[in-house]
Write a structure and sequence with these properties.
The chain has about 375 residues and is of the alpha/beta class. The protein contains 15 helices and 15 strands. It has a nine-stranded mixed beta sheet, with helices on both faces. Strands 10-11-12 form a three-stranded antiparallel beta sheet, with no helix packed on it. It has a three-stranded antiparallel beta sheet with strand order 13-15-14. Helix 3 (about 100-110) links the parallel strand 3 and strand 4 (about 115-120). Helix 1 runs parallel beside helix 2, helix 6 runs parallel beside helix 8 (about 210-225) and helix 13 crosses helix 15.
C-alpha cells in the first residue's frame, strides 16, 4: 500500500539573515499575501497532476512565524480541499522573537497542531554569537505561550558547535529542554555552509571535529537520561512524538515541496524549484534533479534512523533480501563499534552516526 504524501511549504521571509543559514530567504515581507496566493495556485496545480492524499504539512523557512496566521490558515484550507490532510500533523517553525501570545492562539485555531521553536541555545552569549534576534527568555515565553494556547506537541531546536560553546553551556541548554517539558528536540551541528556569512568570515571558537563529536555524544547521553529516545541522527522525542513529516524524508516516501528552493520526491523523480522568488511568483516550472529512491539512496536515508535497515522493509521495496555484500561490510564495521547487527538487518551506533557518510560509502561499496 502506497503511503500518503507529505507537503512542505517554504516561507522565505525573514526579518534578517542569520550568518550561518543557507536556506533561501528574503527580507521583503510585504510580498507575503501575494506569495501565499501563489502557493495556493501551485497546490491546485500539483493536485491536478498527482491526485494524491497527504497526512503531513510542514511550514518551514525562512521564518514562517512572521507572516499573518490567516495566511497560513488559507494554505491549510487549500490543502484540505485538495490533498485532504485527514488526521494530519501540521507543523509550523517559530522564531521565539516573532510570536506573541495571541499568535499562538491564532496558529492553533488555524489548525496547526505542532510547533518547532528555534531555541538554538539557552545561553544569551551564544545566541548573540549566532546572530539570533531572540534571547533565551523569549524561548521560555514561547514554550509557555504555545502550551497555554493548546499545543501539546512542541519541538525545540538546538545547535552544537556554537562559537566558544563548551559541555557546561550545552548541558544548560539540554537541561532547559527537559525543564520546559517539551515532546521533541532536534540538535544540529554547526556547519560552515558555502554562501553564508560564517563561511566567508569564519568566527573564532567553533568546535573542531573531535570536540564536535564530544558535544554530540554528550547530547545523546543527556537527552536519553531525560527520557528522549533518539530516532534519527539529529532528532529525539518522547514516545509517540517523532516528526511524522520528517520521517517521510528518511523513509524515502513521496513528498511535495512548494516554494523557491523547495525540493520534492514524486513518482521516482527528485525535483526542485530555483531559489528565486520573482520566478516563483510568475509561475515557475520545477527543475528535474534525477531519479530517486534507488538502493543506495534508500540505505543512506534509512541509516539516519535508529531503526536502520530492516530486511522485511527492504523486501517490500525491492522484492529481494538485503544484498549480501552490504551485510558483510556492515559486519566488518560492527567490529569497530560503528554498526549494530541484528537478525533482520543493521543500524548505526551513536559513534557510527558521527561518521555516517563514510560508513554508508563503505557499505555501498
Amino acid at each position: 500500500m502506497k503511503s500518503l504524501m507529505g507537503l512542505y511549504i517554504h516561507i522565505p521571509f525573514c526579518l534578517k539573515k542569520c550568518p550561518y543559514c543557507d536556506f533561501y530567504s528574503i527580507t521583503n515581507i510585504d510580498l507575503q499575501e501575494r506569495y501565499i496566493d501563489k502557493v495556493c495556485y501551485y497546490i491546485d496545480r500539483w493536485y491536478a497532476k498527482t491526485n494524491q492524499k497527504a497526512d503531513t504539512l510542514y511550514f518551514g523557512g525562512g521564518t514562517p512565524s512572521i507572516i499573518k496566521a490567516q495566511l497560513l490558515e488559507k494554505v491549510i484550507n487549500k490543502v484540505k480541499s485538495t490533498f485532504l490532510l485527514d488526521k494530519a500533523e501540521i507543523t509550523l517553525e517559530v522564531n521565539p522573537a516573532t510570536a506573541n501570545e495571541q499568535d499562538f492562539y491564532d496558529y492553533f485555531n488555524a489548525g496547526i497542531n505542532r510547533v518547532s521553536i528555534g531555541m538554538q541555545s539557552a545561553n544569551d552569549n551564544e545566541l548573540k554569537l549566532l546572530g539570533r534576534m531572540h534571547k533565551n527568555d523569549d524561548t521560555i515565553k514561547a514554550v509557555y505561550r504555545a502550551k497555554k494556547a493548546g499545543f501539546n506537541n512542541i519541538s525545540l531546536d538546538l545547535m552544537l558547535g556554537i562559537p566558544y560553546q563548551d559541555e557546561i553551556s550545552l548541558k544548560k541548554s539540554i537541561d532547559q529542554c527537559a525543564e520546559l517539558d517539551v515532546q521533541h528536540v532536534s540538535a544540529y551541528m554547526l556547519k560552515l555552509e558555502q554562501g553564508t556569512s560564517f563561511y566567508n568570515n569564519p568566527p573564532k571558537g567553533i568546535a573542531d571535529e573531535d570536540y564536535m563529536c564530544d558535544l554530540y555524544l554528550l547530547t545523546c547521553d543527556l537527552l536519553s537520561k531525560y527520557g528522549f529516545d533518539q530516532y534519527e541522527i539529529s532528532n529525539w522525542s518522547k514516545k509517540g512524538y517523532e516528526s511524522k513529516h520528517n520521517l517521510k524524508y528518511w523513509d524515502c516516501c513521496e513528498y511535495l515541496g512548494i516554494g523557491p528552493g523547495a525540493h520534492s520526491f514524486i513518482n521516482g523523480r527528485r525535483i526542485y524549484y530555483e531559489r528565486n522568488i520573482d520566478k516563483f511568483l510568475y509561475n515557475m516550472d520545477e527543475k528535474d534533479d534525477g531519479e530517486g529512491g534507488n538502493k543506495e539512496e534508500y540505505l543512506m536515508l534509512r541509516l539516519r534512523l535508529n531503526e536502520g535497515i530492516k530486511n522485511k522493509l527492504w523486501q517490500d521495496r525491492f522484492n529481494e533480501n538485503i544484498p549480501k555484500e552490504y551485510l558483510q561490510r556492515a559486519l566488518q564495521l560492527s567490529k569497530n563499534g560503528l554498526v549494530n547487527i541484528n537478525g533482520n538487518g543493521f543500524s548505526l551506533t551513536s559513534k557510527g552516526m558521527l561518521v555516517s557518510n563514510s560508513v554508508i560509502s563503505y557499505i555501498t561499496g
